[in-house]
Amino acid sequence: MVGAVLTQNTAWTNVERAIANLRAAKALSATRILAAPIETLAQRLMPAGYFNVKARRLRNFCEWYLAAGEYRGLRRWDTARLRAGLLSVNGVGPETADDILLYAFHRPVFVIDAYTRRILSRLGLAAGDETYESLRRHIEQDLAQGINDEQALVNVYNEYHALIVRHGKEVCRTRPRCEFCVLRAGCPAAAA
DNA sequence: ACCCAGGGTCATA
DNA sequence: TATGACCATGGG
Q1: Is A126's CB less than 7 Å from nucleic acid strand B?
Q2: Where do you find CATH 1.10.340.30 in chain A?
């Protein structure tokens, strides 16, 4: 959950350093994060970038998390309520909320990130101007075909998104370089 | 000396 | 509601 907040627009390797700092200071828990002075927290988050912003966001999240009864309390919330709760925290947007829902609470929610948008766009499966929600529902409905077991669905969303992240950097950011992209076979610009 | 990384919020018009 | 500024480090 901490990683979900720290990885906002940030390379995961930098997030790992920040988490290592928290761990080394024995400050990797909601109460410990709230106990430290915010300047100290920000200092520990420095490798992850945006450290002043993220220190505030982590605190906001931890306050909500403790007030909501931590994992033991939250795990009994239905997914819609849990998602609304996460989104009510200043600093937690749709992607961060869904990261937490899928990877921490094992809920059947597909995470839409920059890589997902880019890949779908390259494949001609999305125009690029879709809202987060519409794109999410579309993919969820598509991937859920033939799967009736909830746990199996979580596994599919988990693995599918993980693969997108793992290979996302191999997809060219701009169309002009599309001929070098791993998706060239399905890329409209490459065919042109 | 660039560009980029698994976003989100806030101030404008 | 729709853009744009802003946040800031580390690797390529």
Answers
A1: no
A2: 2-103
* C1’ B13 / CA A129, Å: 21
| Tokens of residue A169, six digits | 């950097």
d(CA A32, CA A52): 17
Q: Averaged over A85-105, what is the pLDDT?
A: 98
Distance A190 CA to C2 C1' (A): 31
Per-residue model confidence as pLDDT tens digits over A40-55: 999 999 999 999 999 9
A97 beta carbon to strand B: under 7 Å: yes
Contact A41, A59 (CB under 8 A): yes
Q: Which residue, among A115, A130, A126, A124, has the nearest Cα to A188 in the 3D structure?
A: A124
- Provide the mean pLDDT of chain A: 92
Per residue, the 3-state secondary structure of A96-153, as one string, reads HHHHHHHHCCCCCCCCCCHHHHHHHHHCCCCCCCCCHHHHHHHHHHHHCCCCCCHHHH
- Closest nucleotide to A10, Cα to C1': B5
Q: In the complex, which nucleotide's C1' lies nearest to the CA atom of residue A8?
A: B7
The fourth-level CATH superfamily of domain A2-103 is Hypothetical protein; domain 2 (1.10.340.30)
Hey, is A6 helix, strand or coil?
helix
